[in-house]
Amino acid sequence: MYAIGEILLVVIGILIALQVGSWNEDRKTELSEDTCRSKLTNDLVANTWNINQSMAWIGLRSNISLS
């Protein structure tokens, strides 16, 4: 009977360790997604600014050549 109790305790310990590992992987995935989302947002802002600057420069240049 004692051996069955020890086996059961080991199995429960393994299941808990697997669950903790799963939680940790989920947390890492979530952090990775947040980092990726943040980088994409920053790139979008930078690209929008660059496009606006280019459009302003093209508009300024076309006004100068028309004069």
Please characterize this protein's 3D structure.
This protein has 67 residues and is an all-alpha fold. The protein has one domain. Helices cover 97% and strands 0% of the residues. The protein has 1 helix and no strands. The protein has one helix at 2-66. The longest helix has 65 residues, at 2-66. The mean pLDDT is 91. This is DUF6090 family protein. InterPro entries: DUF6090 (IPR045749).
Q: Report the sheet with the most strands, covering strand number, pairing sense and barrel closure.
A: none
Number of strands: 0
Mean pLDDT: 91
- Rg measurement, Å: 29 Å
Low-confidence stretches: none
Helix content: over 70%
Distance between the termini: 99 Å
| SS field, number of helical segments | 1
- Percentage of residues in DSSP E strands: under 5%
Molecular shape: rod-shaped
What's the helix-strand series?
H
Tally of distinct domains: 1
Secondary-structure-based class equals mainly alpha
Organism: Robiginitalea aurantiaca
Pfam family, one: DUF6090
Protein name: DUF6090 family protein
